[in-house]
Amino acid sequence: MKSVLTIYRKELADYFSSKKFLILLGLVYLTGLTSIYVSIQNIRAAAQSSTDAFVFLKLFTTSGDVLPSFLYFLSFFIPIIGIVFGFDAINTERSSKNLSRLLSQPIYRDSIINGKFLAGITTMTIIIGSIVMIIAGIGLRVIGVPPNSEEILRILIFIFICICYGTFWMALSMLFSVVMDKTATSILTAIAIWIFFFFFVQIIASAVANAIAPVGDNATLATQIKNFNIDLGIKRISPAYLFTEAITVLLVPSGSQLFLRAVTTADISNMILSPLSLGQSLIQVWPQIVVIIALAIICFAISYIVFIKQEIRST
Amino acid sequence: MDNYIISTKNLIKKYGSKIVVDNLNLNIPKGEIYGLLGPNGAGKSTVILMLLGLTEPTSGELFVLGFVPTKDPLRIKRFTGYLPERVGFYEDMTSAQNLEYTALLNSIPEKEIPRKIDECLDIVGLKKDKNRIVKQFSKGMKQRLGIADVLIKDPELVIFDEPTEGLDVEVANQILETIFNLNKEKNITFLISSHQLNLVQKICHKVGIMSKGKMIGEGNVSELSKNMFGGNKYQVEVEIIGDTNKVIEKIKSIEGVKTVAITENTIHIGTDVDLRQNISKIITNMEGIILTKMNIKDFSLEDVYLNYFKEV
Q1: Which of B87, B303, B43 minimizes the C-alpha distance to B197?
Q2: In this complex, is the C-beta atom of B55 within 8 Å of any C-beta atom belonging to chain A?
Q3: I need a surface site. Which of A19, A215, A249, B252 has the fewest CB within 10 A?
């Protein structure tokens, strides 16, 4: 256990002094501050048009005419943060010939991977937590509306989901760093998977849905629902989509119910948009959260097993 | 068995159906410098990996410091230093920071660490480079830092995989000298794997020659050469002008001459002691014979080694 702590401390120090940490932090802060600027510009209109009292949460979800909201930025950046902190975890140790020296020390082999993983999670928590806090702080000062207790809880759970989601991407890229010898290969593979989940799954989903159940001008409601279900089913393969669903339900308490999706725009005006309670919101996104955590655990477990079984040669 | 730092019995390692280490019996007592020699791919590194518990043997017994590597790897690693063939350090950290990390991983009390770092860096002559980052180090310096890294845990056994590989002769000799002194002063047992015999033979008490996973010869250098060259330790080469047959007859009558052979106009004389004086006296005393060249070779490990691999 002590050796995990030693490795953890060293890795953490490495991360904090690394250039990639500073670049990512700068990037996230920059986009975070941009989006808070945008949301402050538009929050008055957004607050007036909504029926609920969750004004504070709108800081995170309000978008401008051109720039998207903080939520969108975050769903874009979290995978990148995760990948960047994981892709070179093991293969750099190997290519720098540190691994065999490290393994000849009196430590269990899993200490190395555990220490690195924990350090990565910590760093990610700091990046994500700090930007959310900064936004909340600026927002509090500018709009002058303090968050109520439910909003604080929702924000905390939101941070937790973000960290789980980031952990999944870190575990995935760490898996590639165990399996692949070159850092370039592992980062490119991870990024390819991210692009697939983030962009292509949506395109594929709507293409497949439209092929199986085309929605024409006079399509029946049944066809529309079928189209919608196929589309949704395929999209939900992607962890990126699950993540978006989860944080949207949490931060937009009214009008984002997953079970009551509007099929046409006309339906929206017929819906009664009263906010869900926190418990109800959580019940809705429970499967999404569980899947994200499970995926993170699976990726970590595979890299763990592969790493333990790997033969380490000095050459 | 308790007297040996390393002891293996019928050790076998197979990768698939390929036998990499074949029935290896290795016994190394405390305080010895043992050279494990052999060409690349002879199975030396695999033996080392098994000793450290990084690879499981297929069958056979194996004890290091009295423990079984696959069962008690941590206890072995706590007192065994291992310097891999190409040692790597965290390049952005200073040499002292690298050593500190190793010390922490070995659970050395934090109070003692700064003193130990100074002590170890002093032994390898890197004290003035304590606060330089490793990126700026030359290959030889890194190798020396590797020795310091191994010493910081006060090892009983140190395993070096190709310690002189890729170093120029001067630096390699410095490293070997350090090993020699450490063995003398701290009574640390060394296992050195290498294919650079001429360098390593100077400091090894005993060598084992491996080929294709088998130990094909073991002993100190003179023992090995005795087995090899019919017990002759020296070979005197004589070139003359004149009747060679007559000379050969005469030389054969000298006491201590074991073998005499001739190639072209060179006479090869195998002996156990240095007989150059006697031989030259006899030749110069003979009429019509002029001694043009005389040479003596004592068998180095390289000859032993080359000869072994000619046979294999």
Answers
A1: B303
A2: yes
A3: A19
